[in-house]
Amino acid sequence: MRRPFLSIIMSGKLNPGLVFTVLLVLCFSCGSKKDIVPPAIDIKKNPSLNNMMLNGAIFNTSVVNVSAIPQFRLVFSQPIKAASLTAISLSDDRDTKIPVATLLSDNDSVVLVQPAQRLSYLTKYTFSVSTALQSASGGSLQSPINGSFVTTLDSSRKFPVIANNALLDTIQKRTFNYFWDFAHPVSGMIREGSKHPSNIVTTGGTGFGIMALLVGIERGFITRTEGLQRIEKITDFLENKVQTFHGAFPHWLDGTSGNVIPFSQNDNGADLVETAFLVQGLISARQYFSGGGEEVLLRTAINAIADSVEWNWFRQNNQQVLYWHWSADKGWAMNLKIRGWNESLVTYVLAAGSKEHAITRQVYDEGWAGSGTMKNGQSFYNIRLPLGPDYGGPLFFEHYSFMGINPNGLSDAYASYEEQAKNHSLINYHYCSTNPKNYFGYSDSVWGLTASNIKNGYAAASPTNDQGFIAPTAAIASLPYTPAESMAALQFYYYVLGDKLWKEYGFVDAFSLDVLKNNGAWFDDAFLAIDQGPIIVMIENYRTKLLWNLFMSAPEVQNGLTKLGFAGF
């Protein structure tokens, strides 16, 4: 059994010197609690984010359709030092700082944030919290916090709501101004675009413009005499000043001199397709001005211009196909065959119906139709596409030739053109509505892919070449084919986007609502003749069939369609 230390000492069995030493050591090693200095403890606690809400919903990396005065709620693990709330910032897509108001709540562990001003609509913003944020105990946020969001579109009505017929009148009248007020003062021809050099006029766009002038007369925008005089000015310029190439016109001309302006390096001569668009307009005018006096002289001038086009010469050494370009010094350097399916059907119809320079049906069958290779026959969105590339290509395929050619009931060995025009338009509509590339803003009211300006360039947009840009002309000019879908788009462009799209000459050429990707919210400030023309003309074809009735009544058009095997016209 062990004996207590004190009893051992008292027994005298330990050495007294040793006992003294032990006691001395014990004495000096046993101080009071007041003499003990505890180790230093770090009491700074680093805050961490528990959750972040934006307008009552979880705020993650990117949120869309946010109100113009959003509210943020950040919950932290620690109370936050008020003086460090300057670490919270809000900036727009140009990196401009937006003032914010902050408020602490819930024992200072919750931070409420709201911009001090209303934010801009349809703009991308970045919300940030830097590591300068501190807890009340002085600990720092270990990792910065970042999130982006896009404010909602301003859905207010920019103009008073009016009846649809009045709205169509309004759009036609404003679009007409491009072809009346903005036409070249010397030649009367139509300028290529509002941002192009002012001397550049376009032959195809002039064909569309002549058709627009006829609409203007019928709608009372100008008198019949005014329209006649303007078209006389154009035909006089075409007959007496413009250089032609085997009767065909170049794409671009100088509106004063009539000299060729090269469209590209090797394109400085004839453009047969642009010539066809010009002749389409001229023939429509000839059919319209059927009276006596000056109208007889106009018809004579138009016949001289149209009949001089040597369509069959553009077969390049008698091949069974037409070629798009030829110039005096470049020859056939462009070497582009006119083959379907695209916008050029009217070229073959006019070539087949020519009085002195006609092509045979074999040129149409082997050249344009590629012996049937222009057929598609597949279905997209459960909609059958008779002709052309998958998903149909740009919508101008169904506009440019069909400003004069009426597709309703029209068919040949390759397609029903009523089905082609309608189904191509519907496929384009469904593509934009389903929005497989997730471009912000695409919807059943924002649709239509065709050739147009884009941000920093120009592109022929289609479902297989979709860069996020919508052209108003695409859906609006499809009005005869997709009336409900086109009218919904037209109303949205006018009433909702009107402050951005509706300008001096009608709707601007293109826009993008794609705030989340590279495009940003972009609205063109330019107009193009070949996009404004289909708007006014195809609206009129939808309303009265005016241009369809005029062009389809022409004997050379009837002859051309018959020769090529068309039926139903």
Automatic annotation (TrEMBL):
The keyword Signal applies. Residues 64-151 form the SbsA Ig-like domain. This is Glycoamylase-like domain-containing protein. It comes from the Bacteria. InterPro entries: Glycoamylase-like_cons_dom, SbsA_Ig. It comes from Niabella drilacis (strain DSM 25811 / CCM 8410 / CCUG 62505 / LMG 26954 / E90). Residues 337-554 form the Glycoamylase-like domain. The keyword Signal applies. Keywords: Signal.
